[in-house]
Design brief:
- The protein is of the alpha+beta class.
- It folds into two domains: about 170 residues, Gyrase A, domain 2, CATH 3.30.1360; about 100 residues, no CATH class.
- The strands form three sheets. It has a four-stranded antiparallel beta sheet with strand order 2-7-10-8. A four-stranded antiparallel beta sheet has the order 4-5-3-6.
- Helix 1 packs across helix 2.
- It starts with a strand and ends in a 7-residue tail after the last helix.
- The relative contact order is 0.16.
- The mean pLDDT is about 95.
- It binds flavin-adenine dinucleotide.
Length: about 290
């Protein structure tokens, strides 16, 4: 049994295929299969095997011509977010767009975006539904937007190493996208997991509780390995503890992250989620994603 520390990092890759692959492979812990040309195939597979939530980790923001903004406001497409503070803007993720693009009754209002996608990603968008009706500009540098615009349209992806108790709380924040290491697909008896489970020690565990906790973890590991002999990881996982280490990729707008910080950095939050969220919040302040006063 390994005991590790909770930690996090930002996944700032802005290449579509590579970012989706990086987040998606967390589910299977198959990052070792990433090669120079594995990303496109991985994304194609995701598109065809009903695991579309992984596609939510890649977000597009466009500035629009004013008439186009008003047309989009009228049609109200699911998971398309519009604002007009300084610039008329829209953002949506890859899944939201593909959901529309693959419809038989593709909304004609979106053919300008279809044109952009077909030109930029010709191997993924092949249905020739596009037409350059309006001028749009992809926003790549969010620092040019106002604070209000960034809060709505800039999406940040954080990979967290934490325990399964924390992630159970985290995924209650519904206006976000998640990909998490799967205890169905991961078999911790294999070499790539060093043939053992990894756990995270609760931050507020009192000194005289340490041995009790360690014993419980070791018992759980023993039972898990015994169950693996007669079943599969998805059955054996039933005895794994809340302290089991897990990785989760979380993609959310800055506005949603602010709400997460408000609820999970407060003194009412569980100490383990508060510990890691305070660290993520400090990082957001350091990067200028949020102000110190929040
Ligand atoms: C200290 C603490 C204790 C908690 N204890 C428990 C507990 O004992 N049991 C338990 O089950 N949960 C508990 N939770 C989880 C809590 O109930 C929320 O599920 C979680 O905090 C996510 O908050 P949210 O719904 O505001 O955020 P999100 O899901 O991120 O939603 C963001 C906002 O969108 C709006 N929204 C989203 N979906 C809907 C909808 N379907 N209808 C209307 N508005 C919507 C709301 O305005 C919401 O605030 C606890 C949370 C905290 C912080």
């Amino acid at each position: 049994m390994i005991i590790c520390e909770p930690t996090f990092s930002e996944i700032a890759d802005n290449r579509l295929f590579q970012k989706v692959e990086r987040c998606g492979r967390v589910c299977y812990k198959s990052e070792d299969k990433i090669t120079d040309d594995s990303a496109y195939k991985f994304v194609k597979n995701i598109c065809s095997n009903n695991h579309g939530s992984v596609l939510e980790h890649y977000n597009f923001t466009f500035s629009l011509e004013i008439p186009f903004y008003h047309i989009l406001k009228e049609v109200d497409i699911p998971f398309f977010f519009l604002s007009y503070d300084n610039l008329p803007l829209v953002s949506f993720n890859l899944r939201a767009f593909l959901n529309q693009y693959n419809r038989e009754d593709f909304p004609s209002e979106l053919k300008t975006f279809a044109y952009f996608m077909e030109v930029t990603y010709p191997t993924l968008f092949t249905l020739n539904k596009g037409e350059k009706e309006f001028n749009i500009e992809l926003i790549e540098d969010y620092s040019k937007l106002t604070r209000k615009e960034r809060d709505i349209h800039q999406y940040i992806t954080i990979s967290l190493i934490t325990d399964r108790g924390v992630t159970h709380e985290l995924v209650r924040h519904r206006i976000a996208s998640y990909s998490q290491e799967s205890t169905r697909y991961c078999n911790y008896s294999k070499d790539k997991f060093s043939n053992q489970i990894t756990v995270i020690k609760p931050v507020d565990l009192p000194e005289d509780g340490l041995e009790i906790w360690k014993q419980a973890m070791e018992n759980a590991e023993k039972s898990y390995f015994e169950l693996l002999k007669v079943s599969s990881p998805q059955i054996a996982r039933s005895v794994l503890p809340n302290s089991l280490k897990t990785e989760i990729c979380v993609t959310a707008s800055i506005n949603e992250w602010k709400l997460i910080f408000e609820l999970r950095c407060s003194s009412f939050a569980h100490p383990d989620i508060r510990y890691i969220m305070n660290k993520v919040k400090s990082y957001f302040i350091e990067k200028g994603y949020i102000d110190e006063t929040i």
